[in-house]
Fold this protein.
Amino acid sequence: MTQTTLPEGMDFPLEGVRVLDLSRVFAGPLCGQVLADFGAEVIKVEHPLRGDDTRDWGMRIGKTETTYYNSMNRNKRSITLDLQSAEGVQIIYELLPQFDVVIHNFKHGGADKLGLGYEKLKSIKPDLIYCSIAGYNSDTPEAHRPGYDLVIQAEAGLMAINGEEGTPPLKFGVAVVDLMTGMYAAQAVLAALYRKSRTGRGRQIELALYDCGLTINGYYALDAMLLGHDTQRYGNAHPSIVPYGLFDAADGPLIIGVGNNRQYEAFCRHVIERPDLFEDPRYATNVERARNRHEILPLLKQVIASHPRQQLLERMRAVGIPCGEVAGLHEALTSERTRQAGMFHQMPHPVVGQTWVFAPPYRLDGQRLPIRNAPPTLGDSTRAVLQELLSMSDEQLQSLKDKGVLTLPEQQG
């Protein structure tokens, strides 16, 4: 485990909170990572041989990590336990009194089958905060269906609002349903921890990927309900604001976000030097521009394409119009802007020397929360955690290892 020191004067809101993260893949691990970023001690429980599924997704780093795994598991410690074994489940029971939160995303009924359902764990830890994530609601006929981000994007209408008009439905570039579900789960756990601090009572939290997928549709969903049919797709443009989106200058693409009529007047007069496009009553207000978008946008695109990109950017910034270049991913990650933000770091790695890790996006009292632990190798803390919290002897650990219940750090290289 690689650990950084805490900046002077910095403390963590969740210091002293312990989280048992039984989840895997994306949404659950992201919830655990958010809590870990805020200072909770998060113990990730993984299968002794294969670990989290995502240890085999993405580009390999060392022996047990990948780029996918590392994106969701910083600031955690990893232990290995076979939860299909009675001994593995018994260790969870013994650990539980020292933990505040449990996170899992077992299939519907899977936690109860293992003996890890809410009622059972609540009987051991009455004030437990228990967060479960599934594909669909537990009280519906589809409760047993597995939840996959791509399937939910399709079923929740997200693919129908993404992409350009006249093209097939398109998934988002990242697993947006998993991403948002993990964040919603973390919010719910934080609310439950606040309640527990006042009342001493725990709480059962359930999240469904499908519910979160629907929620992400936002104002598109409300538009569709009012219309009684699907909304039009706008690709990189905005359904309500014109001009807003990606445009091609003479020498490359740029983003223009004219958010109000004052900005639009400045855009016409001082950026593209076409005051007539503001003075025309068909385009003077955003409501009118949106109504007449098929007339105004071709005109604007033609004018924008006649100007160099840097000239347009400088003029827009001078009059306060939101704008920017379109960067490649690697270009964005290696930009001076990202370096100044302190969002991307290399940390020591026991096998490959160094590994890239995102910093938490939160800033508290003027300081960005640090990366305390690099994403853990598989089972890096099995020995340490079980000795610290359960006082297990080396002989006990070796016996459990021999039975296949767990692995110990020596096996991981």
